[in-house]
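Running co-folding for heme C.
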Amino acid sequence: MRSIKIAVIIAALALFIIACDSSQPSANSSTPAASPSATAATASTPAPAASPADELADARATFKQICARCHKEDGSGGEFKDESGTLKVPNLREGHAVSHTDERLAKKIANGGDGMPAFSKRLSPERINNLVRYIRVEIQGKK
Ligand code: HEC
C-alpha cells in the first residue's frame, strides 16, 4: 500500500516536473522576447512626441492665465486699463518683440519694467524660456 502511494506521488511529481519543463521553455522564449519590444515601443513612442507639445501647452496655459489680460490671447496687446491707469501694452506679434533676441524677451519677462510686471519670482527660468518659445512659435509663427 505504502509503496503504491509513493509510486503515485513520484508519478505525480514526475508529471508535474515534465509539465513545468515543457511549459517553461515556451514561456521563456515567447514572453521575454515579446515584452521588451512591447515596452520599448510604448515607452519610446509617446515620450518624444509628448514632451515638446507639453512644454508649449504649459506656456500656452500660462500665457492665457497671466499674460493675456494685458497682451491679449493673440499677443496683439493694446491699451490695458486698471485702477492705476492705462498701460500701452506692446504687440508681441511685430516690431521690437520680433527683432529683440530670445534673451532680451526672457529678461523682460523675468525683470519687468515700464508697466510689464516682473515674473522671476513666480516663474522658473525654464518656464520663462518656454514662454519665449511660445511667443516665437505660436504668436509670431516662427521656429
Ligand atoms: C499688467 C500688464 C502686463 C502683464 C500681466 C504682462 N505684460 Fe508683458 N508687457 C507689458 C507692458 C506694458 C510691456 C512694455 C514694457 C516696456 O515698454 O518696456 C510689456 C512687455 C513685454 C515684453 C517685451 C516686448 C518687447 O517689445 O520687447 C514681453 C516679451 C512680454 N511683455 C511678455 C509677457 C509675458 C510672457 C507675460 C506673462 C508671463 C506678460 N508679458 C505679462 C504689460 C504686461
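Result summary
Residues 66-67, 69-71, 80, 87, 89-90, 92, 96-97, 100, 105, 108-109, 113-117, 119, 131 surround heme C (CB under 6 Å).
Residues 26-32, 37-48 have pLDDT under 50 and may be disordered.
Job closed.
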